[in-house]
Amino acid sequence: MDRKQKMCTEFENDILSNKEQKTVEELTDFDGVTDSDRDFLRYLQQSRFNSVLNSEVTKKLLTVNTNSREKIDLLLQDNIPQFIENGDRILRELELLGIAVSCLQTFVQNNWLGPINTTDTYEWLSSNIKEKRKDHTFRTSIETDLYVDGEEIYSRCIGIEYLYIARIILLEHRECIRSLQTWSWWLMRCLAIHQCILDDKSPTIKATCIQLMDELSKTEPLLTDDSNRDLIIQFNLEAGYLSGMVL
């Protein structure tokens, strides 16, 4: 593992376990890293998810709309490949993960932990989508996209768009990711949250999560190296809880 990959892995692990160890100024091995990149990663380290979503980095992914898309999934379909290829690939993958994590954590904050994020959900989305949201069918279409195995979602969820974006990035675009080890872990968390807001449990989500658990348990060195003992314990606790209580 080269120095840059090792640095990325350490940063991933710190975010996963909510540790703030590596200073952003140390991330000098990434090609073309800018002040905006450093700000983004610092916000992510500090769990300032609203700042992450309003950052210049996030705007590159969610505001640029060259094809005038009016649906979030199509916007991301256009922008994610270009976002990853435009710059240091490892850094871009890490930032893409950061956007998904921030969306997921904001959804959890709004619906479980509090306080509710009062920022306009669409403030950082393209103008076409901001305009389209005025159509009463816009939220309905997002909710429908989140139905799984015929199970509908709880209609009073706050900021369902956050979960929607996180799920699209983590699940539908995971084939774009080559360098990150914790992507599947965050996907597992995302699907578990999705399962919690369905009317009844989805066999599809359960099967996917079990598959992810199996894959993660064999991920080297994330969950096989004794130096990651704390993460191994954390994974086993999470997997056990999800298997017994959520899935």
Automatic annotation (TrEMBL):
Show the InterPro entries listed in the entry. Answer: TTC27/Emw1 (IPR044244)
Q: Which domain of life is it from?
A: Eukaryota
Instruction: Enumerate the UniProt keywords alphabetically.
Output: Repeat, TPR repeat
Keyword Repeat belongs to the record = yes
List the protein's name.
Answer: Uncharacterized protein
